[in-house]
Amino acid sequence: MDESPPLPLNKTVVEVFADFLAYLLECASSFIQETHANGAALWVSVKDEIHFVLSHPNGWEGQQQAEMRKASVLAKLIPDTTAGHARLSFVTEGEASLHYSVHNGLPTGVMDDGEGVVIVDAGGGTIDISSYSKNIGEAKHRFEEVASPQCNYLSLNFDFPKLIHCPQAFFMDPSSSQFMPDHS
After folding, report:
1. Domain that includes residue 45, residue range
2. Is the same domain home to 134 and 65?
3. Do 99 and 87 reside in the same domain of the chain?
4. CA gap 177, 51 in Å, rounded
5. Which of 92, 93, 148, 168 lies 20 to 30 Å from 53 when distance is taken between CA atoms?
6. How many independent structural domains does the chain possess?
7. In a domain, 98, yes or no
8. What is the pLDDT of residues 5-44, one digit of tens each?
9. Would you say the pTM of this structure is higher than 0.85?
10. Whole-Å CA distances, 73 to 21, 67, 79, 88, 116
11. Quick count: other Cβ atoms within 10 Å of Cβ 74?
């Protein structure tokens, strides 16, 4: 796998992410203002009330979310205030995939009896596996993670083209309950 390109000179990862978020916000602003009737007035009426939801890898928690929050402030998505921070939420990629699947792909009723579902997100060079069940108690549309991932992702740095042609390239290591690449 190729190395990631170096960061621009005198820029931190947070600043690069902030630049990207600012670019996305500008694109959204332009699109709304240029394509909707009375778009400029619409944008002005909503721009300071937008609630942003950012997704992140399954294993990320407080420290990484704090860095993402800093980038959001630098990008001027939200102000650096308590009220501004309240307009920013985080969701794991597994949770985002679950909600997408619930609304766009799972057959109706598949989780109604407390049964679970496993979401496998295999893209972008990683594999995230998350398992959820529907809480059949007090909350009708509440889901719970069945098991926290032991390994949040598997980086596909080894000979991936070889893996594609050999379906048995993974095997379960019985001593650790982890999938291991078979380099035979």
Report:
1. 13-92
2. no
3. no
4. 39
5. 148
6. 2
7. yes
8. 787 888 888 999 999 999 999 999 999 999 999 999 999 9
9. no
10. 10, 10, 6, 10, 37
11. 17
